[in-house]
Amino acid sequence: MQTPIPFYLDEILEKVRYQDGGAVADYIPQLAAANPSYLGAALCTTTGHLYSAGDDEEEFTMQSISKPFIYALALQEYGLEEVRSLVGMEPSGEAFNELSLNRDDHRPVNPMINAGAMTVTQLINGVDSGVDERVEHIRKYLSRLAGRDLTIDYQTCDSELEHAERNLSLAHMLRNYDIIQDDAHDAVMTYTLQCSTKVTVKDLAVISATLANGGTQPITGEKILDADVCRLTQAVMSSAGMYDGAGRWMAEVGIPAKSGVSGGLLGTLPGQLGIATFSPRLNTEGNSVRGVEAFKLLSQEMGLHLMATDQRYGVAPIREVEIIDDTAIVRLQGVMNFSAAESILYRLEDYEITAEQVLLDFSQVTTVNRIGRTMLKEGLRRMREAGFKIGVIDPDELIKDRTMRDGTQVRRDDTEDFMIEGEELW
Ligand code: DON
C-alpha cells in the first residue's frame, strides 16, 4: 500500500495555488528576485517519517525561522533564568522589526522579534565569541537539526546588510542598555548570517519535528536539545511566533509556528509532528500568503489544531492483553503521557484479571513522559496491593527510575517467554 500523505499535501497545495496575492519581500534585494510561484510543503512525524510535495527541493534562506531554534540553543547552553534575565517571554503584538524594549528593564519582550533574536544570538558560543566562530557554531547546530550540512547564502546576507539600518539601530539600542556586549555591526552581521542559512521545506519539517520530539532528531536519532527546552521554545512560538497575528493564528490554526520573510513557514505539534510550507509571496504581516492558507487547511482537514479536544495520540495505548500461563501481559504502544496512562489505568480498573502476575510491556512504546511513568508505576503498585505479582517488560529501559511511591522497585521481567521478538507493528 502506498501511503496517502504526499497526496493530501499535494491536494492542499493545489487548493492554495490560486492565491496569488501578496508580494515577495523587497527590502532585501536578493529576496525580491525570488520566483514568486514556488510552492512546497513537507511533514515529518516524530517517528521520523518524512513526506513532501511541490517544490520540496528548492533552497531558500531561513530568515526569522532561525529565531526559535537559536533561542532553544541559548536555553540549552545557559538555562532559562539567565536567558530570561536578558529577553522576556511575552507576546509583543508588534511587527518583527519593531524598535521596542520593555519600558522598565529594557529587555526585548520576546526572542521572536528582532531585538530579542539578536540578543539571544549574542549568547551563542559564549559571549566573548568572535563572529565567525559564533556563526559556524550556529551553522553546525542547525545542520544537526536538519540532519544534513546546511550552507549560508552570503549573497542574500550581503544584500540585506546593505540596507540594515533598522536592525543596526536595534543593536545600538541593545548596546546602550547593556543587553548585548558585541559591537552593533558584529551583532547585526552574526544575526543576518544566521538568517541566511539555506534550507528546503523538507529540512524545515525535520527541524521542527525535532522540537516536537523533545529534542531528538527523529531521523538521525541524535539527542540535540532537552525536552524542557523544546517545551519552552514551542510555548514562546505559540504566543509570539506569528508577531502581531499571533492570537488570531492560535485561534484559527492552533499550531505553534514561525514564519520567515523568504516565504518559509514552520509549525510543530508537540509529540506528533513538524510541518512546513514554502511560498515567497507575503502578506502585510510578513507571513507567506499561501503558507498561511495551507496551514489553515492542514489544521482543519488533518485535525491538527493543538486545542482541539479530540487531539489524542493516534494509537490506542493498550495494544492487547495476552495471557501466558499465570501471567497477564498488558502490551502497550505509542506515547505514554497523561492521557495514555489515564486510559490504561481506567481500563485495568475494570479488567477482570484472573492471572497471578501482571506485566506492563513497554517494548512497543515510543516515549514515556514523567507523569505517564509516575501514573503507570502507581497503577502497578496498587495492583500489587490488591494481591498481584507485578513487573514490567522494558527492553529499552524507558522506565529508567523504577522506584515506586513506597520506595520499592518495579521488577523488570525481560525474559524471552514474554517478549514479542522482532514484530513490526508500524
Ligand atoms: O531581520 C530581518 O529583517 C530578516 N533578516 C528576518 C526577518 C523575518 O524573516 C521576519 N519574519 N517574518
Q: Any overview of this molecule?
A:
This protein has 426 residues and is an alpha+beta fold. The protein folds into two domains: 5-302, Beta-lactamase (3-Layer(aba) Sandwich); 318-424, Transcription Regulator spoIIAA (2-Layer Sandwich). 39% of the residues lie in helices and 15% in strands. The protein is built from 15 helices and eleven strands. The strands form three sheets. The protein has a five-stranded antiparallel β-sheet. Helix 1 crosses helix 13 (289-301). It starts with a helix and ends in a 33-residue tail after the last strand. Mean pLDDT is 90; it is low at 422-426. It binds 6-diazenyl-5-OXO-L-norleucine. 6-diazenyl-5-OXO-L-norleucine is lined by residues 63-64, 96-97, 114, 160, 167, 192, 195, 259-261, 286. Homotetramer. Belongs to the glutaminase family. It comes from Corynebacterium stationis.
Secondary structure elements and their pairing?
Layout: H1 5-17, H2 29-32, E1 40-45, E2 50-54, E3 60-61, H3 66-78, H4 80-84, H5 114-121, H6 131-146, H7 154-161, H8 165-176, H9 184-195, E4 198-199, H10 201-212, H11 227-240, H12 246-252, E5 257-259, E6 264-269, E7 273-278, H13 289-301, E8 318-324, E9 327-336, H14 338-350, E10 357-368, H15 370-385, E11 389-393
Parallel strand pairs: 9-10, 10-11
Antiparallel strand pairs: 1-2, 1-7, 3-4, 5-6, 6-7, 8-9
Helix pairs in contact: 1-13, 3-11, 5-8, 5-9, 6-9, 7-9, 8-9, 14-15
The structure holds 6-diazenyl-5-OXO-L-norleucine.
Residues 63-64, 96-97, 114, 160, 167, 192, 195, 259-261, 286 line the site of 6-diazenyl-5-OXO-L-norleucine (DON).
